[in-house]
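Hi Prof. W.,

I finally got the Homogentisate 1,2-dioxygenase prediction working! I wasn't sure whether to trim anything, so I left the full sequence exactly as given:
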Amino acid sequence: MKNSWIQKASGEYVRQARVGVREMNEEHISREGFFGPASMIYHRDAAVAPKRVEGALSLRMAKMEHFNQLDENSDSGLPTLMLHNTEVRISLSRRAAAMPFLLRNIDADTLIYVQSGSGTLATEFGPLEYTAGDYLYVPKSISYRQMPSSETVALVVESIAPISIAEHTMLGRHTPFDSGVLGVPEVQAYDWPEQDEWELKLKQGDELTSWFFDDLPFDLIGWKGDLFPFRLSEKDIRHVNSERMHIAPTSWCIFESSSFLCVAFRPMSGVGDVEAEELPSRHRNVDTEEVLMIRSLFAGIEAPEFWHMPQGVTHGPLGEHRDFFEAYRKQVEAEGGKLERTFDAVSIDPFRRVTPTPAYLAMVSRYQD
Ligand SMILES: [Fe+2]
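And this is what came out:
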């Protein structure tokens, strides 16, 4: 979709979008994430949540404490599917014990974000140690075995379209991270206890096929190439920020495929120009869904939560949440301090509508518990 230089306006508005809008109740409507055609609209009143919703479409919020399903106790032994479309599957994983099998995703690349816990992702290329805040990428068709050393909670994204590291080409090759910081598996002979047989699960969508071997099929003595699993620690992400402008979160895109973006929200200092800092923004993303695994919210509130913001639906803090944030901002300004953005989350933004599963809707229904 092409942007146009023919831009029109009517009524009250600001010349520079997102700057000096304090009392104007700005809402950002944009196509294709934040980089397609966009309009800023100015409401008379502050945003409020709907009084009542009839029908399935709504902003969905859930607490991670309501996700109790251990992978090892499920029928498949795999993570629990939460939201999906024909191209992207988003699951939650809670695993305490090592997978008793090896796993190969036949259909899709896998991206795992570790929210808590630690352990080893033993890939056939070699082990990748992981801890909270790590992204683990496993290309389609490469086998692995997750072996937690402490109970591990993770977001698991499967994408039929290949996942790649997002390029921000105008910013040079070393932002938002240098490829030198990636953890790459070193070949290692796994000294796991002998077993009568080894099971390799081949996963196609929901369908599983098991191949059994007398000897462990992870027997590599070497590898080379540009197709391999790796680890990225969120601590190594060096976000682009601005002193004078709140920049769009798609600037913090870390991974992408033709069917979704993965945006890493990391704590950072706010915009120095208070007239230009208008986060959190009221907006509607016309062409992207947002599925957010959250660690902490604004104003430093720890809140492990899992949200779904459907495309085209206005969001950003509404009602009391907005009031709370405004009070926090005024307090920081009155004290002469600098606003810190403490929102800490990973957002998976599929380009096509995702459907929630009963497992996710059950978590949503318990939000007020
Ligand atoms: Fe959004």
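Residues 283, 285, 290, 309, 315 surround fe (ii) ion (CB under 6 Å). Does that look reasonable to you?

Thanks,
D.
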